[in-house]
Design brief:
With 337 residues, the chain is of the alpha+beta class. Helices cover 18% and strands 39% of the residues. Among the domains are: 114-200, Thrombin, subunit H (Beta Barrel), CATH 2.40.10; 218-336, Pdz3 Domain (Roll). The protein has helices spanning 2-32, 65-68, 199-212, 270-278, 326-329, and strands at 36-41, 48-54, 60-64, 74-78, 81-91, 96-100, 122-127, 135-148, 151-160, 172-174, 180-185, 194-198, 218-219, 222-226, 237-242, 258-262, 265-266, 285-292, 295-302, 304-305, 321-325, 331-336. The strands form 5 sheets. The protein has a 6-stranded antiparallel beta barrel. The protein has a 6-stranded antiparallel β-barrel with strand order 7-8-9-12-11-10. Strands 15-14-21-22 form a 4-stranded antiparallel beta sheet.
Length: 337
Amino acid sequence: MTVCGVASSIPLRATDIFQSIGEEVNALFEKSKSAVVQVQSGDGSITLAGTGFFIDDQGTVLTSSTVIGDNTTARVEVNGEEMPARIVGNDHRSGLAELQIADSGSPSLPLGESTDLKTGYPVVTIGYPLNLPVAPSEGSVTGFDVRYLNQFFATTHIHASVPISPGEVGGPLLNSRGEVVGLVVPSPDDGRSIYALPVEAINKILSDFSQYGRAKHGWVGVDVVEWPDTQHDGRTVRVVRTVPGTPASRSGILPGDTVMRIDSREVYRPADVLDASFFSHVGGQMTVVVRRNETLFNYSFAVIERPSPAGLVPSPAEPKATLQWSGSTDHAVALAK
């Protein structure tokens, strides 16, 4: 009887748990959905569509740059009414686009901090799947990646076990408090999970839009390669070349140097260098600490604007390859050995 009693209580507890999760997701969805909108762009012959969301009460909408493409006109549907939107900024490299509509007092979503997230934490997205009514999807954080197979993001992205459909790209990734911690970018695995641009990267690009009218991505002219370190402290980033005529080429950094720190960021793996490069400011100074023959050297030089923007950069499918980050790791390609 006791065994039967215990066995019969397990499904009941599981049902209670799932119902509780469902109620929490529904409550978050009901609270947030009015700030999530449909976004379209194009001149009518070819229309791109996706999701966006308000971040203030002044009509500022964020969405994915893939929803805007190279179009110069955009529209936002608010409460069933289509409104023309001005494209404030559209950065294909980070995947962020900012729109502005003539609307004040719109509901908005608060911005949180993705640095609070850990693997296993619950997250929710809200979007318009397949042009259907707005709906939520829930899952959990599965990692923080700068690379998917042979594709590289401009900076570390949040990876979550949330399936999405066409139309949901550009929507918000929310934490359990209903705060935006990321923006959903196109899924490289056919929608089985999502990647999201972290809110800290969003803020950096928004600052650029506000200051320059476009995104400015830093560059110093260093090529680095991932080089496994079995003798020291696991530092794996080694300089292979400095690009002639760039600040780094005049700094004193040499091929073979192991990168230890960039500004205040400790460098252990290539993703650390990508992130440091992404968050650098054009015109500012960058301090790099390298190790050469067991001696540490400090170098400081100016950050310039990278020559040409790029988003995800595919690399050849080579079974034997090293990873080279060209232009102070602003983008990545795989080079055959």
